[in-house]
Specification:
This protein is α+β, with helices and mostly antiparallel strands. Among the domains are: 127 residues, no CATH class; 190 residues, 3-Layer(aba) Sandwich (Rossmann fold), CATH 3.40.50. The chain is 26% helix and 34% strand. The chain has 11 helices and 19 strands. Strand 7 and strand 8 form a beta hairpin. Helix 3 packs antiparallel against helix 8, helix 4 crosses helix 5 and helix 6 packs across helix 11. It is globular, with a radius of gyration of 25 Å.
């Protein structure tokens, strides 16, 4: 009996050790995650791959790739079509010292007030099973208010309602990463002090489902977006997925404006100029198979006009203004105003003019809408457009607010330049006498002359005024008139 007992005990110990080994193997397993982002009735899907201390996120069908390297304390963003990449190191003592030194340079500085972000995280106590994990239901709010003497009048609220899990595969460098996405203030003009307060110590974890909603100063919803995991599985991943291909060139910036500027700089042959390498790549994109339109659309419904909306371009912008934010705000607002039962709106992905026209013809667009927006700073202050970077980045750095399947830095780096930017959020930083000019052209694909071409202007009579919506509304009416709708 004793012998049998010892055998049974040994068997149990072996079983426990086997289970522990299996659990460890699961914890170390590579993971593939597919996520879906939905806002304004439109959805996009991203794929994230995680291996050890690294992750790879492919956005917009692989047109943009972000590699997160926690082991090397940096992010790498790649643009496959241009075979270019940028490196964004996390906030370190060296970069902090550099930023501080730059900020200390003399300038005409006026002391402003205090902008306070209060971050409240609450665990509702609800639990449910998701993808084999027990998920917690948390609600996080970020309320931002400025003092009466602040240079930037802010009164906004953002709420994130989500379900989170404890996952061994989740990377652990979120806080350091968030610091890399903070936007340092320019030490000139009127300067506010930014403070972050945290309420609640609820443990977040990895997000499987989140709804992010922003509200204006009157408590009215101005934007919402849902991020959700639609697939979570184990997969054996090659280490090369998390490295930059040998034939890619490093550049400082590959925003849309920077790439277009590089495409026309006439210096593509300069061997030591990385930006010129991108110039050559961008110019060759027009004839590359990867650049050709691939999206398949169904046949147009009878009586419906299909409008192709090209990416909004920016002209001159005032000091402190984000050209990407301004373009996104105009594009999103214009898309909203063009919604109609008799209109089918298609977002055109091509950047080069010749390719925009080609994509529009391929997608059977009846008309293409081109827009160019410029901003001129009027009264004092730093113009408008930096609200998300100024307010959200400090708060993100404190609590690690992250979108589905990703981390805090992705929110500041990706969401801020995506659909979250609207006319309502931009108006928070508008100063008195700020001017906005919007040029809109409506053209039939392949036509040499436009069906309509007008310029619209607006000027802020007071701080905080929405100067985008009025011109966009007029422009949208012109577009519909030109399309005879």
């Amino acid at each position: 009996m004793k012998a049998n007992g010892r055998i049974m005990l040994a068997g149990r110990v072996a079983l426990v050790l086997l289970c522990a080994a299996a659990s460890a193997a699961v914890a170390r397993a590579d993971v593939k995650i597919k996520t879906r982002q939905t806002s304004q009735g439109q959805s996009t899907e991203n794929a994230t791959y995680i291996k050890g201390k690294r992750s790879r996120t492919e956005m917009s069908g692989g047109q943009m790739i972000t590699i997160q390297e926690c082991d090397l304390r940096r992010d790498i963003q790649m643009m496959p079509q241009a075979k270019a990449y940028t490196i964004r190191p996390y906030d370190t003592a060296e970069t902090t010292a550099t930023t501080t030194a730059a900020a200390a340079r003399p300038g005409n500085v006026t002391k402003g007030g205090v902008v306070t972000s209060t971050v409240t995280t609450r665990d509702t106590g609800e639990r449910k099973q998701m993808f084999g994990y027990t998920a917690r239901h948390l609600i996080t709010t970020i309320e931002t208010k400025s003092s009466p003497d602040a240079c930037t009048p802010l009164d906004s609220k953002m709420e994130t309602d989500g379900w989170y899990i404890d996952a061994a595969f989740a990377l652990d460098c979120d806080i350091e990463r968030a610091g890399a996405y903070s936007v340092p203030q320019q030490r000139s003009g009127c300067q506010d002090r930014y403070e972050t307060k945290t309420v609640g110590a609820a443990r977040r974890g990895y997000a499987l489902w989140e709804k992010m909603t922003s509200f204006d100063k009157d408590g009215k919803e101005s934007f919402s977006m849902v991020n959700e995991v639609v697939e979570l599985s184990q997969a054996t991943l090659d280490a090369s997925l998390f490295e930059v291909p040998a034939d890619y060139r490093e550049v400082k910036d590959f925003s849309g404006a920077a790439l277009m500027a590089a495409a026309g700089d006439g210096d593509a042959a300069t061997p030591h100029n990385a930006e010129s390498g991108v110039s050559a790549s961008v110019k060759s994109m027009a004839n590359s198979p990867a650049a050709q339109p691939t999206a398949e659309l169904g046949a147009k419904r009878p009586g419906v006009v299909r409008l192709g909306l090209a990416s909004v371009k920016t002209g001159s912008v005032g000091e402190g203004l984000s050209a990407a934010d301004l373009a996104a705000a105009v594009q999103n607002t214009l898309a909203e105003y063009l919604k109609s039962p008799s209109v089918e709106l298609v977002q055109l992905e091509a950047k080069l003019p010749s390719q925009v026209d080609a994509e529009a013809r391929q997608k059977e667009c009846d008309f293409v809408v081109y827009a160019n927006v410029s901003h001129k700073k009027g009264g004092g202050g730093g113009g408008f457009g930096g609200m998300f970077g100024k307010v959200m980045a400090p708060a993100v750095g404190q609590v690690g607010i992250g979108h589905t399947g990703s981390t805090a830095g992705n929110v500041a780096g990706q969401v801020a330049t995506n659909a979250i930017v609207s006319a309502g959020t931009m108006s928070a930083n508008v100063k008195q006498k700020d001017e906005l000019t919007l040029d809109v052209r409506v053209q039939t694909p392949g036509s040499a002359s436009p069906a309509a071409d007008r310029q619209f202007k607006s000027k802020a009579k007071s701080a905080g005024e929405d100067i985008i919506t009025p011109v966009v509304e007029q422009a949208a009416q012109m577009v519909l008139d030109a399309a005879k709708l």
